[in-house]
């Protein structure tokens, strides 16, 4: 899946395996190895195109970007919340970097959380803990958000997703 994310410039948590209407629900659990060998001077765009063509030809998968209603974790400003001066805290980040951290995944799995916001991405946020630890600990993340006058809301948004549609029959 990481090669698919690379080839399409989509994060792993925006890849949707469309097995809902198919009997091929085992597709998600299948593991394999793929290797594309090409001359060293081959441009990245060409390698990506060959990979996507191989998905169709060898694995009988259609791949395309489509808008889907998805469950998301949306970062919102708390209503009527007075935030104290936090500049003295040791750690800080901006909202853009926090979203990148929370949405970064190194291994694909079904139903990965997607974090979004409508707030200004340059908003500076302060923390008591090193920022990378927030992505690994939900309690720390909740405390960090509360400290900055923010909350996480479970909602549904229309997002551009990379949809992989495996057909029932194998191409080979």
- Tell me the β content: 25-35%
Low-confidence sequence ranges:
none
End-to-end Cα distance:
21 Å
- Rg over CA atoms, rounded to whole Å, is 20 Å
What sequence of helices (H) and strands (E) makes up the elements? HEHEEHEEHE
Extended strand count: 6
Summarize the biggest pleated sheet: 4 strands, mixed
What would you note in describing this structure?
The chain has 172 residues and is α/β, with parallel strands linked by helices. The protein is 24% helix and 28% strand. The chain contains four helices and six strands. The protein has helices at residues 2-8, 44-59, 95-103, 138-147; strands at 15-17, 61-77, 91-94, 115-117, 124-127, 150-166. A four-stranded mixed beta sheet has the order 1-6-2-4. A two-stranded antiparallel ribbon has the order 3-5. The longest helix is centred in the first third of the chain and has 16 residues, at 44-59. The radius of gyration is 20 Å and the shape is elongated.
How do the helices and strands line up, and which of them pair or pack?
Elements: H1 2-8, E1 15-17, H2 44-59, E2 61-77, E3 91-94, H3 95-103, E4 115-117, E5 124-127, H4 138-147, E6 150-166
Parallel strand pairs: 1-6, 2-4
Antiparallel strand pairs: 2-6, 3-5
């Amino acid at each position: 899946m990481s090669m698919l994310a690379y080839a399409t410039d989509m994060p792993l948590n925006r890849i949707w395996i469309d097995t809902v209407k198919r009997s091929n629900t085992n597709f998600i659990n299948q593991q394999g190895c793929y290797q594309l060998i090409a001359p060293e001077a081959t441009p990245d765009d060409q390698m990506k195109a060959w990979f996507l063509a191989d998905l169709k030809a060898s694995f009988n998968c259609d791949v395309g970007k489509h808008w889907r209603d998805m469950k998301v974790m949306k970062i919102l400003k708390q209503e009527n919340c007075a935030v104290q001066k936090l500049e003295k805290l040791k750690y800080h980040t901006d909202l853009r970097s926090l979203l990148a951290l929370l949405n970064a995944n190194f291994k694909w799995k079904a139903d990965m959380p997607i974090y979004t916001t409508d707030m200004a991405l340059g908003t500076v946020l302060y923390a008591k803990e090193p920022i990378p630890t927030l992505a690994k600990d939900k309690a720390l993340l909740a405390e960090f958000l509360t400290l900055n006058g923010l909350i996480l809301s479970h909602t549904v948004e229309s997002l551009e997703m990379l949809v992989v549609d495996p057909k029932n029959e194998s191409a080979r």
